[in-house]
Amino acid sequence: PPPPPTQEQQQAAACSAQPTPFVVYFEWDRSDLTSTNRDTINAAVARAKANGCSVTLTNVAGYTDSSGKPAYNDKLSARRADVVKQALVAAGVADAAIKTAAFGENNPAQPRPDGTREPLNRRAEVQITIGR
Which of 73, 90, 104, 105 has its CA 20 to 30 A from that of 119? Predict the structure, then answer.
């Protein structure tokens, strides 16, 4: 039988298993995080940094529903992405490893007619990439 993997090989394998993306949801017309949101972010960072791994890149995409004016929604989605970025930094992710994007009411998770409040569309999607 082949020799058992070394600790370094085990660590490399653990770090190659990327965390699943996660979503942070927001109340209508808000960009502040709830304690549940903070717990979700902290837990995701802790999982990503387990086994000696490090976060190499994090993408945060902010979105809104279509209940406001498009220009306002673009700014709100940017605030949502930024507040998630701040929480990721507070949880130990390097600021330089986080990229944010704001999509406003584009790319809805749940398509609805213009002017509709939809909780599933008020979100920030987060993808963490890890390495050694």
Answer: 90
